[in-house]
Amino acid sequence: MDFLSYLINGLGLGSVYAIIALGYTMVYGIAKMLNFAHGDVIMIGAYVAFFALNSFGLPLPVAIILSIAVCTVLGVTVERLAYKPLRQASSLSVLITAIGVSYFLQNAAQLLWSSSTKVFPTIIPNGGISLGGLSISYLTLITIAVCIFVMICLTLFINRTRTGRAMRACSEDKGASTLMGINVNRIISITFAIGSGLAAIAAVLLCATYPSVYPTLGAMPGIKAFTAAVFGGIGSIPGAFLGGLLLGVIEIFAKAYISTQLSDAIVFAVLIIVLLIKPAGLLGRRIREKV
Amino acid sequence: MPEKRLILDVKDLGIDFGGLTAVNDFSMQVYDNEIVGLIGPNGAGKTTVFNMLTKVYQPTRGIILFDGEDTAKKNVVDMNKAGIARTFQNIRLFSQLSVLDNVRTGYHNRSAYSSLTAVLRLPAYYAKEREIDENARELLKIFGLESEAENLASNLPYGAQRRLEIARALATGPKLLLLDEPAAGMNPQETEELMDMIRLVREHFKIAILLIEHDMKLVMGICERITVLNYGMMLAEGTPAEIQADPAVIKAYLGE
Amino acid sequence: MKKNGIGTLVSRKKRGRTVSFLIVITSYIIMQAMMSTGNLSSLFSGLLVPLCCYIVAAIGLNLNVGISGELNLGQAGFMSVGAFTAVSVSGYLASAVPNPVIRLIISIIAGVIAAALFGIVIGVPVLKLEGDYLAIVTLAFGQIIKSIVTNMYLGFDENGFQFSFVDNKTKLAPGGKMLLNGPMGATGTERISTFTMGAVLIILSLFIVYNLIFSRSGRAIMAARDNRIAAESVGIEISKVKMLAFVISASLAGAAGALYGLNYSTLVPAKFDFNTSILILVYVVLGGLGNMTGTIISTVILVLLPELLRSMQDYRMLIYAVVLIAIMLLTNNETVITKMKMIQKRFSSKTPGDRAAG
Q1: In terms of Cα–Cα distance, which of C9, A191, A221, C77 is closest to B94?
Q2: Rounded mean pLDDT, C18-26
Q3: Which residue ranges make up each domain of chain C?
Q4: Most exposed of A36, A133, B209, C237 (fewest Cβ within 10 Å)?
Q5: Which of C225, C282, C325 is the best residue to mutate to test the A interface, defined by the most A CB atoms within 10 Å of its own CB?
Q6: Cβ of C328 and A268 within 8 Å?
Q7: C243 Cα distance to chain centroid
Q8: Beta pairing partners, B63
Q9: Does the pLDDT at position B121 exceed 50?
Q10: Which positions in chain B touch A291 (Cβ < 8 Å)?
Q11: How close does chain B come to A290, measured CA to CA in Å?
């Protein structure tokens, strides 16, 4: 029974990672950049939701929508101002800029809202359902449900809509996409918008699980989700989903069966082993250089 | 003609990519100090043969004997050490290194010294570097690149980049030089010069040359023997005159 | 193509080597003079040793990222290995080797050896990968090293060493000494690092890196960076030369960490986290890939910048972030690049002596 409840908790945590990882993987797939500021978008989303709920007393759905809206605008703005001028630059220049954006957001948050931790209100009632001796909290259930819902919507969007098709075309070949009449800049903006909107959803779920809000809140989940994206094969949407879930399960199992202190080390060790066996991640494609 | 030494002996070579057979039942011989041409329509598998000979791709079937030795267990680096050097169809220079340094890298195994020698600047460092420098400059002179020695390789004009690739390959001291479309992108005059240069290389370095080329004037002009490849299979083999008269070759090139 | 005003490629690079040695030696003399005449604020003189550490680690990282072309996001991990090894060795030898300079040298060597060993062990799997996957694995190793050091307990008493992992099970006899204390790291370290040793380490690392670059191995490393397949085709063993760059880079980080660790009485493992790795990477990228002089200058500016902005108090890190983004946008802006080249041309055409030197 312990095993099953750990597994479900792992899937809950993994669902949050998966939603964040989707943002990393979509941006990587289309803009070919590691957006290190993604974790800090989560942090901004958490603050917006916190103030909406606590200071303005808005109902939860409104708070979530507000958080999504702010993060979407933020993501698109950052892309326009900081990343768009660097389309032709080396990937390292883009990486350093993303790090700059990350510092900027963290320090702006610290200036605006101080570095002290704010306690996120309880948004999902305690308790849960029990199935035979197994009890599952509402929070875990909702988190997993949201993740599955997001995944289904995203898959439908990518496969069934014109914009989704354009996105796939851009991730294959930007030059050819432009020739086919696709506005690549618009597609990149939309990608950042979706990724950042997902970050807001992840922020609310994350704060429902760990109810504290502070300026560096996004750093560790960001790194973990980034790891999850690579784990699954960066650029692959099902890969991010699978990678996120697996990472969550491994982390919870490592904490339960091996050691809480070493859980991070174990997670990263598993990543290394997976990459050595499958160098492009679980579902990633390896492109061979033509000689 | 006196009996020449067999340098490359390829028997029933073949490779599959996934389920697709790219090259099959390919056999050929190259003798010492000979210029041999490998021709065929686009997509016939010529570069794939080069990639197998240099072990960029490991062949699925067949045997490559180089200088009498089986090469089944050798990798790309081993093949170069054994004495095969090559150029690439899509030029592969060390773009951020100078022209001279590109050639110097060719001496990596011929004038070797340890990195400790380098860091401590031991006497062997100066001796070996002088040796490398002299040899590399001499090669550049042969290829008319001595005035460009200090420039970035990527700043060279196209024709000069092709010549530099040949110089770099020769620096490794090969017994067999593989040239992958050396005249691609050259004008008739440059091609003419290249033909003289290839002959000169053969005389000067006493090596065998196997080349892939679409320029028939060049191939017929300098190759002693030609192998024709079509759809991954050998179509014909013979002297330039025999190949030009072969009905199967004419059909493959001109269609029905 | 012809020789232009700023000299040929090789002469320019070799001049860069001379310039960087001159900068380090001159700065050292000036700083020493200012310290002895009391013209240096205590805040500033306290920054000198860490500054040297960051420079050494950045020079090492530039060998890895700039010359070898592999993005490494775990340089702080190697600093950590060097730091805690050196601190432990120094703590253990406190009574056996009373001379602080000799003990410092022994401790730094120990730190370098430990970091080099980690470099070899980590390099084997890491260098099997390419590109972003390689980068993420260095990040992962950085995190693993941090986790491991955070869980290490090491002490010694008259009966010898005691070591435990995760939970502190060491029971030292009276008079025993804890060298590593889990998340608390090293405490009560005797501060034996000096600015002179920092300057010596910078010069040594420049010496090693430059001598390597202008040699057979350096050319092979850069050839492997520029074109893997072509490098193999001329007989260069990619994994071997990449490993050389990776291990030297790790060793220099080890030396930097050792000097850093022995400069503070307490040192926590969390100091060498992902942010520190990123910080060093920023120095390298801003200074210019493969450009060691640039690395030194950018490290000095970026380490001092937050201190110079101290009057701005809360806004300083925000300004730092803005400066970082602005530099990246400006240095990649077409019009700015063209203008800079024009200025450079005009400037160099006015100095005919420069042309003669090239």
Answers
A1: C9
A2: 92
A3: 9-273
A4: A133
A5: C325
A6: no
A7: 17
A8: B11
A9: yes
A10: 47, 51, 56, 88
A11: 10
Half-sphere exposure of C350 (CA within 13 A, CB side): 5
Q: What is the mean pLDDT of residues B73-97?
A: 96
CATH class for the domain made up of B1-83+176-192+210-256: alpha beta
CA A209 to chain centre: 15
**Residue of A290, C351, A82, C14 lying closest to B57 (CA atoms):** A290
Report the distance separating Cα C323 and Cα C305, nearest Å.
Answer: 10
3-class state of residue C127 by DSSP? coil
- pLDDT the model gives residue C7: 47
pLDDT value of residue B213:
94
User: Given this model, what pLDDT does residue B2 score?
Assistant: 55
pLDDT score for B182: 94
Mean pLDDT, rounded, for B179-186: 92
Contact by Cβ (8 Å): A30, A193: no
B56 contacts in A (CB within 8 Å)? 291
Cβ of residue C1 closer than 8 Å to a chain B Cβ? yes
- Interface predicted TM-score (ipTM): 0.93
Q: Give the rounded percent of residues in chain C with a pLDDT score beyond 90.
A: 67
Q: What is the mean pLDDT of chain A?
A: 92
Pick the residue with more confidence: A19 or C317? A19
The verdict on domain B90-173 having CATH code 3.40.50.2300 is no
> Looking at the complex, does the CB of residue A287 fall below 8 Å from at least one CB of chain B?
no
**Least Cα separation, residue A173 to chain B (angstroms):** 20
Q: In chain B, what residues touch C230 (CB-CB under 8 Å)?
A: 88, 92-94
pLDDT tens per residue across span C117-158: 999 999 999 998 888 888 889 999 999 999 999 999 999 998
SS3 B44: coil
- Which CA distances in Å does A282 have to A11, A251, C124, C226? 18, 18, 21, 29
Q: What is the pLDDT of residue A1?
A: 66
Partners of chain C (3+ Cβ pairs below 8 A): A, B
Which residue in chain C is spatially nearest to A107 when comparing CA positions? C318
Nearest Cβ partner for B118 among C212, C230, C232: C212
What is the residue-wise DSSP string for C278-304?
HHHHHHHHHH-TT-HHHHHHHHHHHHH
**Chain B residue with minimum CA distance to C290:** B96
The domain locations on chain B are 1-83+176-192+210-256, 90-173
* Inter-chain touch A97–C137, beta carbons under 8 Å: no
Q: Map out the domains of chain A as residue ranges.
A: 15-215
CA neighbor of C90 nearest in space, from C77, C73, C109? C109
